[in-house]
Design goal:
With 141 residues, the chain is mainly β. It is globular and about 40 Å long.
Length: 141
């Protein structure tokens, strides 16, 4: 079985125009609870990143090592942690324990999507990006 998702619109900070991107709905689960989010499925990202506020709400361990991560906007120090990512569609449901980088609060935090990167998540699925149809197909490995 496979799960198909349509690309979604992302509003970006000025002066960048909005874009249509491969976004998927997931649930993040930690020791204190769960939260639903729509995340950018980013084949160019080595690891997944989530904001510190979300990590605190769901109770992720924030005592892990810190490391510098690089992105299109430069570099930032992030905390290494783990989160349970739940993805479901109709009668299919999968749970993936993924290493994440927890990033500190940013001025434009609400303007940037949460990223689902390749480590752990991409390793769990065969992923097809149908750019011309603006769809993503996930098939569990």
């Amino acid at each position: 079985m496979s799960m198909t998702f349509k690309y979604k619109r992302i509003d970006r900070p000025e002066p960048l125009p909005p874009t249509i991107s491969p976004m998927i709905p997931v649930t993040f689960k930690g020791s204190k609870g769960m939260i639903d989010a729509v995340c950018l499925l980013d084949s160019g990202a080595d690891v997944s990143t989530i904001p510190r506020g979300l990590a605190e709400i769901i109770g992720l361990d924030l005592s892990g090592e810190k490391e510098e991560i690089q992105g299109i906007g430069g570099s930032i120090e992030a905390i290494v942690s783990r989160v349970l990512i739940i993805i479901q569609r109709k009668h299919e449901k999968y749970q993936i324990s993924a290493e994440v980088r927890v990033i500190p609060p940013q001025d434009n935090e609400d303007k940037f999507p949460i990223l689902i990167g390749r480590k752990d998540f991409f390793e769990s699925f065969n992923i097809t990006f149908k750019e011309s149809n603006r769809k993503i197909i996930l098939k569990k490995v």
